[in-house]
Amino acid sequence: MQSLRDQDTLIPRPRGNLPKACAATLAAVTMGGVVVLFPNRLFGLVAKAILMLTLGPLLHGLCLLAEEMLHHYNTRYRGRAFLSHMLPACGFGGKTLLVAGLAGLLLYLAGHPLPHKDQYWHLLILVSVLYPLFKSLGVLGPSEVEVSDICEGRKMNVAHGLAWSFYLGYLRLVLPHLEDSIAAFRATHQSSSTWRGRGSRKLLVLIPLNANISHKLEDEDDNIRFYDNLPNNEIDRAGVRGRVYKHSVYRVLDENGKAHECVVEYATPLLTLYSMSQESSAGFGEPERRQQVLLFYRTLQDILEHSLECRNRYKLILLDDKHEDDPHFLSKAILRHLQQQEKEEFCLTPPPHQEMVHPLSNSSSAPPSAPSMDGDWHHPEPMSREPTLMFSLEKPQPLKGPVENSDY
């Protein structure tokens, strides 16, 4: 059975700055070696190296600029400013131009202290010209890690769009009304309702890693049985008057046959991910689909954690596909999360109808445990409710030190 801590090992964390630190360390070590071996050629070598690294991308940017200006100036850029939009898009950013300019200035100040300077200039021109060719052929193209890092950093993944759409178009609309819907449901099903615990009053959202979800939960696990639907929520949305949003209530049987009622459903955007993986034209295979499901879970979790409308009204359940052989894996996963919510969340509010009587009050009726005027004690009345925990709101006081009270 998958434990709740195993989910942390499945969710990919955002990429950090370790590559930058490794690159900075490698550059520092190399620069130190150049200073030791060629102290008089340091500035010239550094300037030539920087020019080789920057002139190639700038020449490749000219090739991109020709395509953009001739065929996409009006359609992609809507005739916007040439300097502020098209040039940065083609790679002529301020950082690249600044580094190339500083390298040229550094080479000029160095005064060409390098032997065989003509051969170095030939090498510089040759490397700069070959770079656009290899870049266009894909030899120097970005790696999958770089593309993934760019897409995640700029929120360009399919999972990011689906997570925001699921939140803005569904969860943020229905979760604020979930408790009222459950209360209305319990009022009409008092004879058969067995709602217990805080976890059963949340919306349980199932997110399977394989994105292959069933439209009926009882088809996945015979320990899950459909019970009824919550009252419909009607919201005016996108020109539709009284658009209906509904949730289904299921009864989940544990190993002892005891039923636990809860509101549970799959994350519907996963249907889109699964359908895309079945279409060859989408270019979306099974490995990419699994990665997008994990990013969908992480993105949706981050969104909901910062949402005041949805706080404490949901529970995301990530389902691993390694336990498909277990016919009751789904019911066990749901029950495990319900039990976790019941153990972790407690209600600390004072009990209702609790009255406190000051012992020195001059009321006409004394409290049941107070002594009467004739000296007889009256036994208190039996408790009419179960005992509850009492919490003091006063700050803890320090312990008293030993006091010497002996006589000398």
Automatic annotation (TrEMBL):
InterPro entries: STING (IPR029158), STING_C_chordates (IPR047191), STING_C_sf (IPR038623), STING_LBD (IPR055432), STING_TM (IPR055434). One of its GO terms (biological process) is positive regulation of non-canonical NF-kappaB signal transduction. The chain crosses the membrane at residues 21-39, 45-65, 86-108. Coiled coil: none annotated. It catalyses: H(+)(in) = H(+)(out). Residues 46-155 form the STING transmembrane domain. Residues 353-408 are annotated as: Disordered. It comes from the Eukaryota. The keyword Transmembrane helix applies. Residues 375-384 have a biased composition (Basic and acidic residues). One of its GO terms (cellular component) is endoplasmic reticulum membrane. Gene3D superfamilies: 1.20.5.5200, Stimulator of interferon genes protein. Belongs to the STING family. This is Stimulator of interferon genes protein. The lineage of its organism: Eukaryota, Metazoa, Chordata, Craniata, Vertebrata.
